[in-house]
Amino acid sequence: MTTEQYDLARRGSRVSDLRASANDNPANTVLTALRDLNLRVAGSKLVDITDIETPFGDVEMTIRTSNRQQPQRQYKDSPLILRRRVTYHGQPKSTQLEINSKPLRSFLRKTLDGYPLLNLDSKVLVFPKPFEPLFYNASAIDDYIHMLTTNEQSPVETKSEVESTPIQPLNENGNVILPSPEPHRADQIELETDNAFQANMGHFLAFQSFMDININPTRSEYRSLVEDQRVANFEILWTLFEPGARVIEQNDYYIQAYLVDSSFLTEQNGIGIQVVDCVSWDYDGTYYGPKRKRFHIDSFPGTKRVSALPLYPIRFHNEIGHLSESQLLEALVSRGIKWRSLLKNAYRHYHSTAWIFRDPLEGKFTEKAIAPSYVSGPIILDYETHRQENPSQATALTFSNAAKGYGHALRYFYEGGFQYEDTTEGRNSQNSQNAEEEDLTSPAVVRGFALTEQAWGFFLVEHVQDWGHSFGNSDMLVLRRDVKSLILDMISSHNPKIDIDFMSGKGRGLIFLLQGPPGCGKTLTAEAMAALTGRPLYTLTGGFLGMDADKVNRELRLAFERAKAWNAIVLIDEADVYLASRDKLDLQRTLLVSVFLHRLEYFEGILFLTTNKAKVIDVAFESRITLMIPYPRLRSEQLSNVMRGLIISAAKNDPNLLVDRVVLENMDEYLRDDRASWINGRALKNLVKSAISLTSAQQEIETTDGKIYLGWNVFLMLIRQAEANRDQQKEIIRPLRRIRRTEEEQSGEWESTEPAKIHREHIPRQTLGEDEVDALDSATRKSREALSQAMNRDP
Question: I need a surface site. Which of 18, 60, 557, 743 has the fewest CB within 10 A?
């Protein structure tokens, strides 16, 4: 239902009745119907007229409502005109108030200064129904007219203004009384001035009468429903959305604040729809600025609680939330400040729900679908690269009419020259005047790339965490000290701008090839170097890249461009298939290797490749590899240090984890035995992790103090299981549902008589204290340094 149809319905008239009573002359139908409407005319100075349109939209005739036809120009100079427009067949189309009165226009220019979408400099002020500017400023209008009638002061203009701009007397038709060429006597001048004042006062009284009839009933309904009961019906829904008002949209995940730009009523398929245009503050990768969003609220019967609407003023939030209005405003502003700090290629950590861009299903979508997903791991926040790769999801900034002076950008717009705020400029004192509005309406989500999921997405600002660089991985890295220092120095001093190749752009990358058996620390080396240098680690696998040459070429191009933008280290794990020698009989492999070689040639960043098949590497890679590092199998002393480092790290991260001393002693003995030949660095990590998990699961049932007592019996059971599966070469230890403690295991007895040096006595729950853990950590570091020095002396 449109506003015009609703207006007719409230007056007991229906459009169908108008059409039913039509005769050969449609104009007579309109005249008769309007005469029966009993439309009220507000005062003698307000002219209520109706324009009748032709089927082509032209005005065929203008009539005084409920009166006979008159020439259109008859009402041109009337002080106030209520103009209704209907179609040729009587269908209501629009209603507007036109103000020609000079004192009224002067008063409204001052009262409504800054109101959007309103031309206050026009010779005729036009207010379309439902007259929103007059509704929102009705109190100021009432106060001023009351002051005029009480103090009998000249409308709008002060005494000085009257002297400089004499009042033009008007006749009863609203026309200016031209002065007589003969000189006036003093009493005649005073009489004409009084007549002019009375005429101007009549304009204000007629305007007040119009307000009483057309605005004040809506104000009364607003106070009764919205203010007193906190509910609204669809007919007065527009009153909630004053331009510049702070409103919020709430869903299951976050609250987003906006400023109202404008609102209007429309319909679709006969259903009324309240449209609300809002603006928020956003960023497109280069500029900050306002972004528009349109909301549609379908009509509903009866009344609805304001806070149950999809969009509502922020002052109603405390009815459904735990935060008061002031607390919510403070939280949203704080979130906006954090959002602004995350926009410059930030390397962060995230643990929460995110909206990830998924590849479209084949033949179903042309654009990537966005699906909620739980993300846990490192993320890169980068608007510019996101915009380049996903133009359909890029932020589209726009100017707005929300409120004069809204933000830096909007202030430029209202002064006649809109421009965005460049991110290269900081906020100065002038820009900070509206910083609160910008922070309040900043997005609840930030755009970025999930390194684990290898996908772009939207991440909740409040769950983005600073990336605390952990150097624990580098401590557990078993690598000769001089080799580790060499890698670090090469990474730190790498400068891709240095170009010594004959062909510009080639050979600028720093490429390491790490070769050795599984579990010797190849992947850990790349992780440790990324942590030590504070760079993101962008990991690719053969499963992700695939075997299709076109896909590999495309994915490598994207990965290398992203790594350059993020200053990241790229790791291609298990790159055997891309490094293998080319075969004349295998065209696909030849094409794949050629694509890989080409991408390496023009890569400008830092790349780690890992392989355990060094003998099959194509000879062409030798000239493209900056440094090739062999990794021998870990010795028992090195594995002992890795094991202690893992246990110490777990104990420090979880204060409830208590480690039995016997675990360290027996593991040292076992690692020196030939039976431990199946253990490498990765298997040792899985062993420690599984032991802690199984112990925790068992003791959640049997203990109530929340402590986790990590004893030797759990390690013993897992080692037996691994040894039983050794013939099948399984490094992944099968989980056990429950730890079944036998007397033999409780006492620490070893079934086999070998190795003889295994400690047989099990001391239950004689755990390492905090000081002992620190001392053990220090001793382990010294042992690791001694091993490193010994490795340096090896030929």
Answer: 743
